[in-house]
Amino acid sequence: MATRTQAREAVIGLLYGYEIGNDDIKKSAITILEEKKIRNKQQEFALCLFNGITQCLPQIDELIKSHLKEWDFSRLGRIEKSILRLGVYELIYTQTDTPIIINEAIELAKIYGEENAPKLINGVLDSIKSYKKEQ
């Protein structure tokens, strides 16, 4: 049985595909998740995240842009964008504990991102976490 971490990894892959212009990825998301052996509750979790992120993408991207320090959104790698989008969505739209969200995002960045990605992702999500508390 897949874990939530594996579900998040799959969501990063789906978001990456979506980012590079594969609009059909929404239609084939279930098939992709099945191939990765993400089923049942974890599949529901992954689909909920992916669909939520794609529906809220403009708001999520604006929030990321407003919390990037000394970095331009357009210069972010696609994987880093995908991880940030997932983290921001979970912070803002889910009840998952903040430390879990940030830790998972950092771990995904260590595996899939560029060398400085974990630090960048930690900084942006930590800033958004503080922003969320103020709201």
From TrEMBL:
What GO MF annotations does this protein's record show?
Answer: RNA binding
What UniProt keywords are attached to this protein's entry? RNA-binding, Transcription, Transcription antitermination, Transcription regulation
Q: Which GO terms describe its cellular component?
A: cytosol
Residue ranges annotated for the NusB/RsmB/TIM44 domain, each copy included: 6-128
The GO annotation for biological process reads: DNA-templated transcription termination; transcription antitermination
Among InterPro entries, the record links this protein to: NusB-like_sf, NusB_fam, NusB_RsmB_TIM44
Gene3D superfamilies recorded for this chain?
Answer: NusB-like (1.10.940.10)
Q: Which family does it belong to?
A: Belongs to the NusB family.
Q: What does this protein do?
A: Involved in transcription antitermination. Required for transcription of ribosomal RNA (rRNA) genes. Binds specifically to the boxA antiterminator sequence of the ribosomal RNA (rrn) operons.
HAMAP family associated with the record:
NusB
NCBIfam families per UniProt: nusB
The protein, known as: Transcription antitermination protein NusB
Native species: Helicobacter fennelliae MRY12-0050
